[in-house]
Amino acid sequence: MPPNHIPLIPYRPTLPAADAARAFYDTMRLRRTVRMFSDRPVPREIIESIILAAGTAPSGANKQPWRFVAVSDPTLKHKIRLAAEEEEREFYTRRAPPEWLVDLAPFGTDTDKEFLDVAPWLIAVFKLAKDDDGGATYYVNESVGIAVGLLLAAAHHAGLATLTHTPSPMGFLTQVLARPANERAFLLIPIGHPAPGAVVPDITRKPLGEIAAFEEG
Ligand SMILES: Cc1cc2nc3c(=O)[nH]c(=O)nc-3n(C[C@H](O)[C@H](O)[C@H](O)COP(=O)(O)O)c2cc1C
């Protein structure tokens, strides 16, 4: 055995592999980005498990270059809302190229971000440009992107709705949440239960033939 290695603990699904793979897909196909949240509280314990699941993601040289700041404090959430809405006003009136606004039209999004007050938790995701001890981090965007994917899947698995939100630029999160200089805002993820009667855009997902190619032997 190479040094610093331990035996792998295998994961064995309770279903046959094909059924397990299909069952997971059947769960994930119901994940939707939700923009209408209920204010129903979500216990911190659930958020902790979801963040722990995200933290199992692979990362460049295992640097784990992520930080998840979970906010339920109403005053902080409101500060985040006000700052996000300011950026969004700039985006919609000045920064967004016309094509982007056309692409966004079907989603009915605008500068009003009420969900930032309503959702019981906002998870601000930061990427670590440098380790906390000043050391290098690698493949940071790839690593944090994978971690967020796991976070969204874990929340969905727990029956919670999420919104992947990018009020760009997100530098205000560093100020509002008083984060250190090595952390860069990556995404803002409201998380909670959907509002009763919540609706989502009627979108389609590309079929397998469009998202995959197989070169079989
Ligand atoms: C990186 C990224 C940024 C996004 N930013 C926003 C956003 O700022 N506001 C928003 O309402 N939705 C945002 N979305 C959500 C997308 O619009 C949504 O994922 C897409 O329309 C597909 O819908 P679905 O998630 O329900 O499958 C973002 C998604 C991603 C992955």
In short, what is this structure?
By secondary structure, this protein is α+β, with helices and mostly antiparallel strands. It has 8 helices and 4 strands. The structure holds flavin mononucleotide (FMN).
What is the overall number of helices? Answer: 8
Q: H/E order of the elements?
A: HHEHHHEHEHEH
Secondary-structure class: alpha+beta
Oligomer: single chain
Helix coverage percent? 25-40%
Alpha carbon gap, first and last residue: 32 Å
Question: What portion of residues belong to β-strands?
Answer: 5-15%
The general outline is globular
Strand line-up across the major sheet: 1-2-4-3
**Total E-strand runs:** 4
Average pLDDT, all residues: 97
**How big is the Rg?**
19 Å
Largest sheet: 4 strands, antiparallel
Low-confidence stretches: none
Which compounds are bound in this model? Answer: flavin mononucleotide
